[in-house]
Every structure is written in C-alpha cells, then in structure tokens.
Amino acid sequence: MLIGADSALWGLVVMSVCLAAAWVSSPLRQDRSLTHWDAQQRHVRDGFVVVYWRPGSWGCLRLRSALRSVSGQILWVNVWADDEAAAFVRDVNGGAEVVPTAILRNGDAVSHPTPEALRADLSARTA
C-alpha cells in the first residue's frame, strides 16, 4: 500500500484545516457589514465603536474573534465593500489602508487596536 491509513487521515485533517482557513479569510465570504456613513451616523448618535476591517486580514480576524462577547456593541465596516470607508481609513492613517482601524467613542482613530483597548472604551461607555 502506497499510502497508509494514517497518512490518508492526516491528509484529510490538513485539507480540512486549509479549507476552513480559506473560507474564513476569503473576500467572497458574505459578512454583515455596515457602510461607512451608516456606521458614522450610529457612532455619533449612539456612541458605538466602529472598526474598519477587510476579509483576509488575520489581524482583523483575531480582533473580531477576541471581541465576540461584545460584538453587539461594535460596528464593523468592510473597507473592500465600501470605497468611502477605504478612503476614510487611508485619510486617518496617513495614506495607508491600515486595518483594523477603530474609531473610539471620543472620535479618536486607533490603528491595530488591542481587544483590551476596545473593551476598556466600551466599558467606559456603559459606566
């Protein structure tokens, strides 16, 4: 036998992990995301934190996963789906399309925010 049962099983595991990673990081994956202007209106009106992200960014994926427990308090805007969002991110980052970029309650823009920083901003909002 050229390929043993153990090799075939490991091949299946590796293939499954690769397919899952491709799905998670795919720009074709449909995700609920607001437009830049909708998010800005809700940010001003209701005090939401806004996070600009893009599919395929592992930094965005890690941030989103780490903030899953407070996801209802954060507005996510996909810069690949909204040209105005991409232009805004470039504007606040000196011309670079840096994601994730967050807009805190006080209006400050933060590039590569930590989950702890966003949680602190959210808890200050509810305090």
Structure description:
The chain is α+β, with helices and mostly antiparallel strands. It folds into 2 domains: 1-26; 36-126, Glutaredoxin (3-Layer(aba) Sandwich). It has 5 helices and 4 strands. The chain has helices at 5-25, 36-46, 58-66, 83-92, 115-126, and strands at 49-53, 74-78, 101-103, 109-111. Strands 2-1-3-4 form a 4-stranded mixed β-sheet, with helices on both faces. It is elongated and about 60 Å long. The mean pLDDT is 87. This is Glutaredoxin domain-containing protein. InterPro entries: Thioredoxin-like_sf.
Topology (elements, then pairings):
Elements: H1 5-25, H2 36-46, E1 49-53, H3 58-66, E2 74-78, H4 83-92, E3 101-103, E4 109-111, H5 115-126
Parallel strand pairs: 1-2
Antiparallel strand pairs: 1-3, 3-4
Q: CATH homologous superfamily of the largest domain?
A: Glutaredoxin
What is the overall shape? elongated
User: What name does the CATH topology of the largest domain carry?
Assistant: Glutaredoxin
Distance between the termini: 66 Å
Question: What structural class is derived from the secondary structure elements?
Answer: alpha+beta
Protein name: Glutaredoxin domain-containing protein
